[in-house]
Amino acid sequence: MNGTLRIEQSYAPALAEILRENLRFCRYHATHRRFIPLASLPKIDATFSVAPRRAKGIGVDQAGRGGASAIGRKIERIVREWRRSVAAKAFSWADTVIGETAPFIGGRAGDVLLLAGETWSRHDFSVLRLVRQRCGMRIAAVCQDVIPAKHPQFFAADGFAERFAGYADFLINDVDLIIAISEQTKQDVLDLARGRGALHADVQTIKLGHDIGAPAPVNRPPSLAGLEPGKFVLSVSTIQSRKNFELIYHLWQRLCAEQFPGLPKLVIAGRPGFGSTDLLWQISHDPVVRDRVTVRHDLSDEALSWLYRECAFTLYPSFYEGFGLPVVESLAHGKFCIASNTPALVEAGQGLVRHIDPLDFAAWRAAVVELVRSPEVVAEHERQIKMRYRSVSWAQSAQSLVALLRPLLGVQREA
User: What pTM, to 2 d.p., does this model score?
Assistant: First the structure.
């Protein structure tokens, strides 16, 4: 999972444990331009079932606890038989059987719609405005960053910047609560708002959880064959131009060419993203780094936990971040990290991370060489992490999120 998806998927079960019958899950259906309640929390790549109907709309208790009606099971059978057309079939059924036309089926004044995922490309903002205007619901949005507005050069040119501009206008004008994932992101939102008019929303900051949620297996997973504990350095992130993987690839290329003794393998773990095509081609075809750099895509959480646990240290040279989950995940596993000095990463590092200018190749080389040559330095960093690192679990973060949401619950929409 990328960071955006991990945040959404980590909050969902944690919030369900806290709010219980006061929480339900929904899916935005682009064809019908409305939110459809779900019978239960969907897993990644899982099938969906529509929440059963009750006398007055969709029941929060039924939708939240995941009960599936006979009709829901019938829909699941349709899903299995016609997987590619599941959404159209399931939600056409919802249109005819439930007979609702509101932008949020079952939504009531005083309800809060929490947008915790990739809002900028997944939703129609005009529909979200109707959720507030016609349903009287409040909207809270987890804002992970506004990087496309600050650094559009790191994103695809196929209309992404325009779509994000619409998201920025929506955040500023139509959201009741913006939940920033770092103080830097909060400041970026406020700066963006100053350039676009008055900010309607309250802006609060929350600390994300650091735990991946899956324990590392005792034995090395088959997907990680060829990696020996303590003999590799790890860098985790979606592979895109903003993450600056070119720097560490060129660093390993230089050290390999110099035949640097004892050089550990470099493991890059993440899915390909925008701007990664040329880099991945170079790595896979470069004879100098063939045995010292490996890229792993689509790893399970268990495999990722094993990588964190068994690596020598981690690297994160990103040019800009809204938070930096790989930094805190590294600390949560007791591993020292060298990261760029962008403000959000300094904030996430808790004073336990070495921060370097992402453009300073010589400084990165010197830092890596020191750690490889001096394992006692790594051990001392790990001792400091064990003593001083302040852990935050997703369960604790969800408690903080609920505290931010409670003032909105039950409050009627302003005229």
Answer: 0.80
